[in-house]
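Question (not urgent): is this output format expected?
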Amino acid sequence: MKKTGKKMMTLAVLAAVVLTGCSSGNAEKPTTGEEQTSQEETKEGEESYTIGIGQFAEHGSLDNCREGFLAGLAQEGIVEGKNLTVFYDNAQADGGTASQIMANFLAKDVNLICAIATPIAQSAYSAAKDTDVPVIYTAVTDPVLAELAGSDGTPVGEITGTSDKLPVKKQLEMIRALLPDAKAIGILYSTSEVNSVSAIEEYKAEAASYGFEIVESGISGTADIPLATDNLLEKVDCINNLTDNTVVSVLPMILDKAAKKNIPVFGSEIEQVKIGCLASMGLDYVSLGEQTGRMAAQVLKGEKKASEMKFEVITEAAFYGNNKVAENLGITFPEEMISSTSQMFDEIAAE
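Got this back:
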């Protein structure tokens, strides 16, 4: 009996060992979605990326930048929903919110941050400079003045991108052609946006060459704009709009006030002309975004570090005009201007 009992116990132990071995060697563990994705990537040999896109304000030109940025990445084989996960947030023109967005992106362990517009690019650099997360910016008018690059264009850290520097001389030349008797150009700008401060200085430096005086009106927030607009319209022959994010966010209100006084408003890019600016020698922000996306792809793929890439400036400027606005103002576009146009609009689009 004792021998039989020992024999049965030994068999039971051996069976347990065999079962345990089968379980650890052959049975599959449950996998999470993240692990499953990782396994698929390993099989396919394809790397995936996670990025955060922070946009300072909500308006057409910056939206176009975002669209173009994703298109630029896709041109380099980095496609949202395939091998790219995107976190997106908008600061609604608030600096404090911009800083929070960047902190959130870093907490999500993104591989790269895209910052659209100067204020949020500054927030991104401030948040990420002591990490290994690179920042790629776009729609930053003056990266040097924004302290994102040195005077020679060299990045101050793991940050680079594209500038939407305005074609000031071409814009002034266009305004003179359309308003031969005009003397004073009004410009509203946010004193807290270094991109606008830079643009104002360039306009003031060039205006006299075209027979203009620049009348500037600095504002600290959107609440200041209605009164500032009313005061400016009493002093000028036209208003020239910059890419100032705070001002652009309430551009329809400015356009409405100017239209009631029959005063033209000139834009700085295509979206502003669509919604009621008379014309612009402007930038294509989709193309600017694509250019930025291609730069970001190089960084994500490890081909270059952001710190090794000087910022780039979009070189093309095109004429955009709005026939409906011109009709309302009693202005005729010169034939040579129309023949060289990139796009003309026959209606005023709703914002």
